[in-house]
User: Fold SMEK homolog 1 from Aquila chrysaetos chrysaetos.
Amino acid sequence: MTDTRRRVKVYTLNEDRQWDDRGTGHVSSCYVERLKGMSLLVRAESDGSLLLESKINPNTAYQKQQDTLIVWSEAENYDLALSFQEKAGCDEIWEKICQVQGKDPSVDITQDLVDESEEERFDDMSSPGLELPSCELSRLEEIAELVASSLPSPLRREKLALALENEGYIKKLLEIFHVCEDLENIEGLHHLYEIIKGIFLLNRTALFEVMFSEECIMDVIGCLEYDPSLSQSRKHREFLTKTAKFKEVIPISDPELKQKIHQTYRVQYIQDMVLPTPSVFEENMLSTLHSFIFFNKVEIVGMLQEDEKFLTDLFAQLTDEATDEEKRQELVNFLKEFCAFSQTLQPQNRDAFFKTLSNMGILPALEVILGMDDAQVRSAATDIFSYLVEYNPSMVREFVMQEAQQNDDDILLINLIIEHMICDTDPELGGAVLLMGLLRTLVDPENMLATANKTEKTEFLGFFYKHCMHVLTAPLLANTTEDKPSKDDFQTAQLLALILELLTFCVEHHTYHIKNYIINKDILRRVLVLMASKHAFLALCALRFKRKIIGLKDEFYNRYIMKSFLFEPVVKAFLNNGSRYNLMNSAIIEMFEFIRVEDIKSLTAHVIENYWKALEDVDYVQTFKGLKLRFEQQRERQDNPKLDSMRSILRNHRYRRDARTLEDEEEMWFNTDEDDMEDGEAVVPPSDKTKNDEDIMDPISKFMERKKLKESEEKEVLLKTNLSGRQSPSFKLSFSSGTKSNLTSQSSASNLPGSPGSPGSPGSPGSPGSVSKSTSQMAAITTKGGLVGLVDYPDDDEEDDEDEDKEETLPLSKKAKLESS
Assistant:
């Protein structure tokens, strides 16, 4: 059997002055060669790993607290504590520490906490102990002055604490307190306040154990009622004895547990309500008080968890239909306080706590409680549910999916939560906001687990959209049956805004589930009805929902929007807003600007074809004119597919020529009979000579004529500042002043379809595999008289230089070959 005497928990003090649990193990003391001295070793009981290895330094101050705690500091900001399961084990290790340091094991502290100056040390050597004045009413002022003068010096604080412990001084002071109260001696009561407050600042566990004992604690609180800075005394004892009632909803059989609960409540009350707020210099003087409360809470939670009968009775009475309403309310409030209590625990302890509650059936119990009529009980149950969701959302998801196989949708736990959100009677919807946050946590894929056998995201989202989404969207669908919201009061608007916020989150984080739901249920059209709301925040929520959908650039969504003409409510709201410069105006313009900048072709065409007349007069931004330009360029490319083909060829293949293709084209060039070519003609395969030159040139001419007509308008739009800061359009055709005449003259000089004016024919220059690279490039972008750029690439200078070099070298090589033959 494991020796429980040496079983300990290791704690470290963090920056927030809270104790962090580092694990449970067994402590031993032995000589460690590496550290050159006797050391404390703690090995984890789970896997035997080393939790602590600390050399017992001769000058380190070790403190023994509450019979089962040893606390010390290893560095300026690194405090350690060992919490023993049994007092005997603590005493054994304490003796080892005292043996190494040469101290008497009866002391509770082995060293002075802070080094004193040489002068103070010299003074104190002549007076090894501190002699307290006799505890009498007439000497209270002298005692108060002694306590106040000792606080600045750590060494004197230590000696004062030892004197107070050894002489049972605190109990004598509390006897004088009763005399002062009986005599109504206000001056004496003020001195006692200063003395007791000073004793708290000594930060000594042994003194706290005396002060917080059952017989003394109420008198200590009584002394702290008489603050000299207040004109009237406080009634703390009256509150604790008459107002604050301890309700034992389930009988606690363990007297030690009951006493610990009473003590912790009162000490917490002293810390929060009775003691004045400590100054910056006094804050660290109360660290032992924080530790006292913390370790008490850990003990209480541990003792309650181990009492299986207590928790079993608690959950049995909670779910029993025979339990009366008042009793059930007390049980739920106890469970709520119990969960709130656990928030102060360290993660490991909190995990064990919630695991115990889960095993006891807390979620089925909550489901029963949430279905009850009592609003206070439901509110407390909601708070408990929030603790569970924040602790482990996966546990809640697993439970609701299992219960869906047995129960109807109406009584599912998540649907009950949604109904409470919808039916919140608070005008500000405080409870609904909390519940919406919990639902958001539950449907967030970021905290869903994926294992080898199953994916929680797929399973839970499938369940949620099948069983719960219709409950969430019911208020939205009920309120948007007409062209405007049927109810437009403030509370309804707030509720719909919350629902829209959750739906917007779903659009962003869920994929096909929400897409199928929106398209099949026509959700977006119903949401856009809310654009007509008199509440601007609700109209903006609806717009934000649509903007999030458009931001996905999903053609399924885009086709749905175009088919149902879902820009109409937005355009109508924009026009109704008039010239007002507000958030609605900016948000709508930003949405159209996003469509323009991202060049979403389907939506651009839809907006211009259907709403251009309504938007063409908006000239204070260039967004709508930019959209029109995008649309026209898109239509021109559709009307001239050969130009579009040429553009894609130049863009996609200009810089990537296959070496084998180049060799084939050169071979063709050199194998071509010189007699077959005339000056200025490009070489093309014979099969292409059947094409009519007029057929190829006709679309170019038409395109140039239209371009000329629109030239002035395009320049004006392109020169204006773009809202997004990006160049628009991303691809543009630009012609030099002589382009048209050069193309025409070149066309008349040659009847071959492969002339430089034919950009898109199958075997023509620019098509892979037709002719050599130099000829291909020259035929595509040059005429005989010089270079004329059909396509303006901003970074083409280097490539153009390379093209010119190749144009000069290849004809020379051709000439050399002909001469040698």
Residues 596 and 626 are 7 Å apart (CA to CA). The first strand starts at residue 7 and ends at 13. The chain has a mean pLDDT of 77. Strands lie at 7-13, 19-32, 37-44, 50-55, 62-65, 69-75, 78-84, 782-783, 786-787.
